[in-house]
Design goal:
Elements: H1 2-16, H2 18-28, H3 34-66, H4 69-86, H5 92-105, H6 108-119, H7 125-154, H8 156-177, H9 193-199, H10 203-222, H11 227-234, H12 242-271, H13 273-288, H14 297-311, H15 314-325, H16 331-360, H17 362-383
Helix pairs in contact: 1-7, 1-8, 2-3, 2-7, 3-5, 3-16, 4-5, 4-6, 4-8, 6-7, 6-16, 7-8, 7-12, 7-15, 10-15, 10-16, 10-17, 11-12, 12-13, 12-14, 13-14, 13-15, 13-17, 16-17
Length: about 375
């Protein structure tokens, strides 16, 4: 598990560092206007989400057939190769094409969740998944800051090569040091969703959890593309370093999430995932609404910092709950469907949030997002025991 933490940190760093430098890279490739840079960046990012969503069930079945460790090796070396190839592209179309391929081979963190959920004793699963979430968050927080520094120091192309090498190192560590006790079925049957329903006693609970994951992803991503625009509207017009301020507001939530993931993971093991999940969803949903009425960026940062404490318990509780409802021989396939729901939610949230803001404004967006969190809590509360 500890080797998995190191590997997850390395891959999360590599994935997250792309955000601040991708528009600049498109500018270097000849894209001139801010609108066009945003368009190409959004296309490159969204393409990966969609392909991951579509490919996850296939890789889940492969994991159940061949073992979960091979998925870690495939994704780490695949992402390493794609990052290195991006460094040698000369057109925006080439970058988008490589990002499509990267979506096909991505999924190290998802595979790590499946592996740890399968290997850890059920009474320690929440703690283990909480630590894994902390490692992923740490890499995601450091990635944009350190990635931008590396790009400024050695150039964007060299940055991609360095990051690709780091992901390759994660693959080497996973190959040598991660051991798996799972023994795959010799001739596993490729189960459709209907057959899975027949094989898994609590299949309806799993469907309810996948719906909750989908709603969670929509809510999380609905604010991501537009929060910088919202911050720009509440700070003085002559404010400098707007990107840094927006990054600091994002980091405030991430730091709180990092601080709470492990303690809430232990709480999941102690009192059960259902209580932690329902309370976290309601807490985060309620704190979403006051953000629509802040008058300065400090108020926004404080509310989002407090909100981050609730977010830290959501995915560990969801994944622990899912693990407890899933027979071990179907863990890869079931978790892959859940990951598809997550990534499809990320895609719809990023597109739908911006559209809703443009149509009805920020106040409505915050209320709708908060309401969806609370609806998800009620869904879990009524649908699951």
């Amino acid at each position: 598990m500890y080797i998995s933490l190191v590997c997850v940190f390395c891959t999360a760093f590599g994935v997250s560092q792309l955000a601040p430098i991708l528009p600049l890279y498109f500018h270097d490739l000849g894209v001139q206007t801010p609108e066009a840079m945003s368009l190409w960046s959004g296309l490159a990012t969204g393409a990966t989400y969609i392909i991951v969503c579509l490919a996850a069930p296939f890789w889940g079945r492969v994991a159940d057939k061949k073992g979960r460790k091979i998925t870690l090796i495939r994704s780490s070396f695949g992402m390493a190769l794609c990052n290195i190839l991006i460094a040698f592209q000369t057109t925006p179309e080439g970058v988008v094409l490589i990002r499509l391929v990267q979506g096909l081979v991505s999924g190290f963190y998802s595979a790590s969740i499946t592996l740890i959920a399968s290997e850890s004793p059920i009474e320690r699963t929440g703690w283990a998944l909480g630590l894994l979430a902390s490692a992923n968050l740490a890499g995601s927080l450091i990635g944009p800051l350190l990635g931008g520094y590396i790009a400024d120091t050695v150039g964007i192309r060299n940055d991609f090569i360095i990051v690709g090498t780091l992901m390759g190192l994660a693959g080497v560590l996973a190959t040598i040091f991660i051991h798996e006790n799972y023994v795959p079925q010799p001739n596993p049957e490729k189960l459709s969703i209907r057959k899975l329903k027949e094989q898994i006693p609590e299949f309806n609970s799993i469907v309810a959890l996948c719906v909750a994951s989908f709603i969670y992803a929509i809510c999380i991503m609905s604010l991501q593309p537009v929060i910088s625009v919202y911050i720009k509207g509440i700070v003085p017009s002559d404010t400098e370093n707007l990107a840094f301020i927006a990054g600091a507001v994002f980091s405030a939530m991430g730091i709180a999430q990092l601080m709470s993931s492990s303690p809430l993971g232990k709480l999941v093991d102690k009192i059960g995932p259902r209580k932690v999940l329902v309370v976290s969803l309601i807490y985060v949903g309620i704190l979403n609404i006051p953000q629509a009425y802040v008058s300065d960026v400090y108020q926004l940062a404080i509310i989002r910092f407090l909100q981050g404490f609730g977010l830290g318990g959501m995915l560990p509780a969801l994944n622990t709950y899912l693990s407890s409802k899933t027979p071990r021989e179907f863990t890869g396939q079931v978790f892959s469907y859940n990951q598809s729901c997550l990534f499809f939610g990320y895609f719809l949230g990023s597109v739908g949030g911006a559209s809703l803001m443009a149509w009805l404004g920020f106040t409505t967006l915050f209320w709708v997002s908060g309401g969806l969190f609370i609806i998800s809590a009620l869904w879990i509360g009524f649908k699951l025991k």
